[in-house]
Amino acid sequence: MHALPQDHTGVRIARLRRERHLTQRALADLSGVPYNTLIKVEQGRLAATPHVVACCARAMRVDVATVVGQPYKEDLRADELDVLIAPIRQSLDVYDLGADPDISPRDPRELHQASEGLCAAVRAGEIKRAANEVAGLIEEATTAAHLRSSSDGWLILASLYRTSYDVATKLGYADLAQLALTRMDWAAQRASSAVFGSAYQYFRALAYLREGKFRTGQRLVDLGLQTIRQAEASQERDVVLGQLHLGGSVMAGRAHNEERAMGHLAEAETIAARTGETPKVLWMAFGGTNVQVHRVSVLAELDRYDKAVDAADTLVIPADWPKSRISHHWAELARAQMWTGRLETSFTSLLKARKAAPQQAKYHPLVRDTYASLEAAHRRLPDSFLSYGSWLSSM
């Protein structure tokens, strides 16, 4: 028996529903989720899609994080990751105190290299390393930025704030991620960077996407698109522009607005033809590959799972693509495969998600819920299936 018999989103939806004295039929009516789908999700026979989670959360007036159960505090404690959160929170709180007299910052080149190293660590799925180092670097870069008051210094600090956002997001601390984004915008304004300012709107939109607030998220995408047009023509500008369209495509897909989703995808595809593969421009991994990966994601968000699986079959991911993005893709594909009854293939995709970025996969809600749904299907799966569940609960 695996270690997560009750740890899936459907169980939490059922518990929250009962706490509000709602029948399954009543919640289905309030949320707009089909009755049969809700039953299967609560039973764990189907992994809850982000759309289902968002609809149920709105209907029961709770945060999406409450429904998906993040952060997974017991597991974070077991992996000694929870103790790293407080220092990050503290480092974000000293932004306006000026230079710390007890800190002698390194020169800008070294700080830039250290910042880029953490961006690379996040993309490689090395979440624990990034979480362990980012707080100290933020404090050092904060002092350096106040002492030198240069655009480059503020951009280094903005990049580190972005890394703290990445860490908080991947570990499920939504409030900390929001705070990190606020600080990122603060630093970007001091650097007078329209590109970073637009990137801030993109990340902010993603935060609302995760919270199931699609209308606000789309407004932020639109604001980002307006902001980026103020920047001078450059590859960085095109990358952020394209990434905003990709974010908009998922936002519209999750809101089940197919026309808008496909429109954003088409715009992104046109821009990608111009930029080529640019995985290190602001560490956004924009390019043709990301457009194709997002197409799979959008089709799944639109509940067109067969088409999502077919689109993935023709997708070739470069070997040097960021492992974090590869892992996320396999997690999304596993859910689509599970919904289409491809259970063994779905589990194979979960294994690939773990292989690409194990620290990220362990804390990915889609990985956990898809695993729980596969177990609930009571079908013959490889012996390694049970050990996967044990891995999810200990690392």
Give a verbal description of the structure:
With 395 residues, this protein is mainly alpha-helical. Among the domains are: 73-192, no CATH class; 210-321. The chain has 22 helices and no strands. Mean pLDDT is 92; it is low at 1-5. It has helices at 9-19, 24-31, 35-43, 50-60, 64-68, 73-78, 85-91, 108-123, 127-148, 151-171, 174-190, 194-210, 214-228, 235-254, 258-275, 288-301, 305-313, 323-339, 343-356, 358-362, 365-376, 384-393. The protein is globular, with a radius of gyration of 21 Å. Helix 1 packs parallel to helix 4 and helix 18 (323-339) packs antiparallel against helix 19 (343-356).
How many strand units? 0
Which structural category fits the helices and strands?
Answer: mainly alpha
Distance between the termini: 17 Å
**What Rg do the Cα atoms give?**
21 Å
Molecular shape: globular
The level of helicity is over 70%
Q: Supply the number of helical segments.
A: 22
Which series of helices and strands comes N to C?
HHHHHHHHHHHHHHHHHHHHHH
Low-confidence stretches: 1-5
What descriptive keywords fit this protein?
single chain, 395 residues, mainly alpha, disordered N terminus
List the helices and strands and how they pair.
Blueprint: H1 9-19, H2 24-31, H3 35-43, H4 50-60, H5 64-68, H6 73-78, H7 85-91, H8 108-123, H9 127-148, H10 151-171, H11 174-190, H12 194-210, H13 214-228, H14 235-254, H15 258-275, H16 288-301, H17 305-313, H18 323-339, H19 343-356, H20 358-362, H21 365-376, H22 384-393
Helix pairs in contact: 1-3, 1-4, 2-4, 7-9, 8-9, 8-10, 9-10, 10-11, 11-12, 12-13, 12-14, 13-14, 14-15, 14-16, 15-16, 16-17, 16-18, 17-18, 18-19, 18-21, 19-21
